[in-house]
Design a protein that fits this description.
2 copies of one chain form a homodimer. Chain A is α/β, with parallel strands linked by helices and 411 residues long. Chain A folds into 2 domains: 2-46 and 294-408, Aspartate Aminotransferase, domain 1 (Alpha-Beta Complex), CATH 3.90.1150; 67-289, Aspartate Aminotransferase, domain 2 (3-Layer(aba) Sandwich), CATH 3.40.640. The first copy, chain A, contains 13 helices and 15 strands. In chain A, strands 2-10-9-8-7-3-4 form a 7-stranded mixed β-sheet, sandwiched between helices. In chain A, helix 6 (131-139) links the parallel strand 3 (122-126) and strand 4. The longest helix of chain A has 24 residues, at 292-315. Chain A is globular, with a radius of gyration of 22 Å. The mean pLDDT of chain A is 95. The interface between A and B is large, with 94 and 94 residues. Chains A, B: Residues 34-395 form the Aminotransferase class I/classII large domain. Chains A, B: Pfam families: Aminotran_1_2 (PF00155).
């Protein structure tokens, strides 16, 4: 009996936990000589590490009794204030009282999902969507329904039709989860004229909007599109320090109406007590004592060059991917989303690509329903333009070894 | 409709989230001049802050591209190894592979509870138990059943009888949650001869043991009792850096058999991706480059002096608490648990105590079933012996204003 004490006792939700495809690729991607177009890691080379190191020294040497001690469940008041200034760049007018600091925005999404979703409830999400969000939703036994997108992002008519259809079936549609800016994995930015419309569709249908915006400021043309939250103060907005500063410190936030924020804080305290105080102080220091916007602008310029290298390679006349493949044109963020013609498998391409020395994430990771098997996410955030070009040459060699499976094509 | 978009959409579990009584007392306890016997904060004055500050400087200045970047979901391999050495002091032989680093052991408990408990499942816990654990259990809609304790901790016969009774009722008893060493809030240490017996009772009944051990090393006599985990490798063990180093960095761990650890890691990745890398490196540095045992020994000596000051005050002939009150004799940890005679209310004493300038946590916070109304948790970890003696004089004044409510006594 002792042997099976665990097997007998797992909760129903345990069945949903599967290894993350991104994390599995992680191991492969760190092999010597491998070029990784897989990870979503920001490039940290532009950070003023020496000055940050001195700041960390002060935070412990002079404030250690505070920065190493327990703190507020809502987060440092000064940091809650500082992140409102970040959101202002996206047209969001927010009160620091409505901000909850979380140990990364992944935890923010966990809190929101746990707060609103019973098992079997429906969450709407872009097709494709963030793999980590799918993990959160599946872990809480919610059902993900994807909504069709085009080059301008989520299609409002599709969203409205999907809500109507699901409600007619008696389903509890709790919220729309959307990454409107330079979506992970598609790289697409939701057109400005669709934002207010999507907010209105959801409000009219009694569906909450959860706007996840880690990439909003990573815009290659310098234009920051107003957040959906700027059109409707009931939108729950998730922010992150991961792409504009550091993912390793795990600092993100949730902006929500006061009553919702208060409830989320209670749940956060039950889960983690509070986020790392040291991390919060370091984030605060970075936002207030450094010219972080200038540093970010230089990083964005690097991301832009890398995106160009990737897109130029994809467009070469000889072709990196099989003829008939399509891909998104990243204007910000970290990703390009490519789709192979009918009959091709991105999983097969992945196996060949690893042999050639380049990795990406196969597209099915970004769908909860098993689709995406012809697509791939190509990340350009971490490798140099030269490495990206070499990676694309390797991908081209892998592509040429790929055989279409016409027998699998029905149409 | 927009106004009610949240009210209409809360999940069932949202009803269970109540403000933590400890957090509410927090606000009162920070008032000027207030003496706090409420918090469970460790005393950080003994930490080598200047050297730690230099370590933090190096971690960012020389390793910033690593310490500020994404990392492993399981935690830093070196830290997973380092914490096995901490557990060895409690007689636990563990492999680093079976360790999952978490952003605080609160998150470890969240992961374990989510992994094993469906709504309505039963968790056994000491009477009284950690208020934060109750929040976690209630948040996941598990039901807490308290098991009677005496001065030697959890009573094995009571545990066995309770399991038998609950199983006869058809209840799913998933795990025993226990803080065997210097229990929060009771301060009691589980007798060594009960440990193996409790492990066997649970194993025979197919009930998992979750051993939460933040205070194991905070032993005033220097004796560290072997952990329950040392008698049964199926025990899930929760460890924490909060009381032996820093709570603010949020670093804890779960030790669990390999298959369980792997599943918990997937859930952890879905919730937080990974704990702060900077925090993990700082914890690793503290455990490997500092004589942390000597620093801890000095802190323990301070805690011992404070516990003595508190216990001596309680034992004065004129009495701090009403005649007939009882209290535990802390031999480690941070807490003394006192119980007033029949007819007295600790909530009423709390109100009077605040007026007199001293705070504690009323006992009902530490029960899921509404009991504990005559008890109070007195923490001695943070105030000086002088402040504790003054606090106890204030508590004595509050006690003298307390009126027994004989009309409420039935027996």
């Amino acid at each position: 009996m002792t042997q099976n004490v665990f097997a007998e006792n797992y909760a129903d939700r345990a069945a949903g936990f599967r290894p993350s495809p991104v994390r599995s690729v992680w191991d492969v991607s760190t092999a010597p000589g491998m070029i990784s177009l897989a990870g979503g890691n920001p490039d940290l080379h532009g950070l003023p590490l020496e000055q940050l190191a001195l700041a960390a020294q002060r935070l412990i040497g002079e404030q250690g009794l505070d920065s190493l001690q327990y703190g507020s469940g809502a987060g440092l008041p000064e940091l809650r204030e500082a992140v409102t200034a970040i959101m202002a760049y996206s047209g969001v007018q927010a009160s620091a009282d409505d901000v909850l600091i979380t140990p990364g925005s992944q935890m923010g999404l966990e809190l929101v999902t746990a707060m609103f979703c019973n098992p079997g409830d429906v969450i709407l999400a872009e097709a494709p969507t963030y793999v980590g969000a799918i993990s959160t939703f599946v872990g809480l036994e919610a059902e993900v329904c994807h909504v069709e997108c085009d080059d301008d992002g989520l299609i409002p008519e599709e969203l409205e039709a999907r809500i109507t259809h699901l409600k007619a079936e008696g389903r509890a549609v709790k919220f729309l989860y959307t990454i409107p800016n330079f979506n992970n994995p598609s790289g697409v930015r939701l057109a400005q004229d669709r934002r207010e419309r999507i907010a209105r569709i959801c409000a009219n249908a009694g569906v909450i909007v959860v706007e996840d915006d880690p990439y909003g400021l990573i815009s290659f043309d310098g234009q920051v599109t107003p957040a959906i939250r700027s059109f409707d103060s009931n939108v729950i907005y998730l922010g992150s320090m991961s792409k504009i500063f550091s993912p390793g410190i795990r600092v993100g936030w949730v902006l929500a109406p006061a009553d919702v924020r208060a409830r989320l804080q209670l749940l956060s305290e039950a889960m983690v007590i509070h986020p790392s105080i040291l991390s919060q102080y370091l984030a605060l220091e970075y936002l207030t004592a450094f010219d972080w916007r200038a540093t970010l602008a230089r990083s964005i310029e690097r991301y832009r060059e890398r995106a160009s290298a990737l897109l130029e390679s994809l467009s070469r006349s000889e072709g990196v991917l099989p003829a008939g493949s399509t891909w998104t044109k990243a204007r910000g963020g970290f990703f390009v989303w490519a789709t192979l013609p009918q009959g091709y498998s991105a999983d097969e391409l992945f196996e060949l690509a690893v042999e050639e020395g380049v990795v990406f994430i196969p597209g099915s990771a970004f769908f909860a329903d098993g689709s995406g098997s012809r697509s791939l996410r190509l990340s350009f955030s971490l490798e140099s333009p030269e490495a990206i070009r070499e990676g694309m040459r390797r991908l081209a060699r892998a592509s040429r070894r790929l055989t279409p499976r016409y027998e699998l094509v029905s149409g």
